[in-house]
Amino acid sequence: MTAGTHRVAILVYDGVTLLDVAGPAEVFKEANRFGADYGIVLLSPSGADVTTNLGVRIAADGALAQAPAVDTLLVAGSDRFPRARVPADLADAVRTPASVAGRVASICTGAFVLAAAGLLDGKRATTHWKVAHELAARHPTSRVDADAIYVRDGTTYTSAGVTAGIDLALALVEEDHGPDVARNVARALVVYMQRAGGQSQFSAPLQGPSPRSPALRTITDLVTANPRGNHTLGELARHLNVSTRHLNRLFRDELSTTPARYVENIRFDLARALLDQGHSATRAAILAGFPSYESMRRVFARKLSISPAAYQRRFSTTRP
């Protein structure tokens, strides 16, 4: 590496997700074709080679603790997190090198490694939507944004699931070399420089666990069985012969939401499924129980930051 080389170290370890490593590395390598000077090294906690989640062996260039200070330290994720706690030796391996790196970033569940090392304390962060709630629960001093593709807080960066590592790497290239270089890299890799909407557009349906109380289960079953029904607060309360205030309290205490928002979420989930099946946006709105297409469009805009039509283009088929 020359004196002006920007040193990028990617932390790898047994069980690391291969795409978390390869995706960002490809972005930095491609940027070198357009005038950048990134030197990429793969470092493990001990310096030993590692085996990825796919069983592919990766040769490490050395031990993270023994490597010279780097400009960018990337911590790749693993599907072992959050099912298992981050090993102490892995968190320890990151702590000191991160303190002297120019910037530190995580890919997907690599955020759990940063958090275990105390590097996300008091900071905004994100990770894969499926485990964002667990990151927030384990590390309550971190402000976890479950919808962001990537988050920057000072010199600390975190990104969402797997391919979001490419989004983050492009953002880092743009930060270093400007939008033209990043745009050329994105074009070469046939990816967007910035994708529309947050990661919630990729998430599973919003329905959570069933309520504990039989009374509230009666209401949620009613809404789920017939999303097109008249499910105003007054109607739902009359169905249980309780006050609207009591029904609101039940929803708040057990589901942390309101009856109106629960009904909206059920209709939203159904509308997404209908769009995936090829129904027109107008038809999906009717079948899902929305009062109008416009009301459905507003819900999609609020939850996904994209329109129903844009959602359908992205997810209805792989065919052009």
Give an overview of the whole structure:
The protein has 320 residues and is of the alpha/beta class. The protein has 13 helices and 11 strands. The strands form 3 sheets. The protein has a 7-stranded mixed beta sheet with strand order 5-2-1-6-7-11-10, sandwiched between helices. The protein has a two-stranded antiparallel ribbon with strand order 3-4. Helix 1 links the parallel strand 1 and strand 2 (38-44). It is elongated, with a radius of gyration of 23 Å. It starts with 5 loop residues before the first strand and ends in a 5-residue tail after the last helix.
Task: Write a concise keyword list for the protein shown above.
single chain, 320 residues, alpha/beta, 7-stranded mixed sheet
Describe the secondary structure blueprint for this structure.
Layout: E1 6-11, H1 18-32, E2 38-44, E3 50-51, E4 57-58, E5 62-63, E6 72-75, H2 88-100, E7 103-106, H3 110-116, E8 124-125, H4 132-138, E9 143-144, E10 150-153, E11 156-159, H5 164-177, H6 179-189, H7 214-225, H8 233-240, H9 244-255, H10 259-276, H11 281-288, H12 293-304, H13 308-315
Parallel strand pairs: 1-2, 1-6, 2-5, 6-7, 7-11, 8-9
Antiparallel strand pairs: 3-4, 10-11
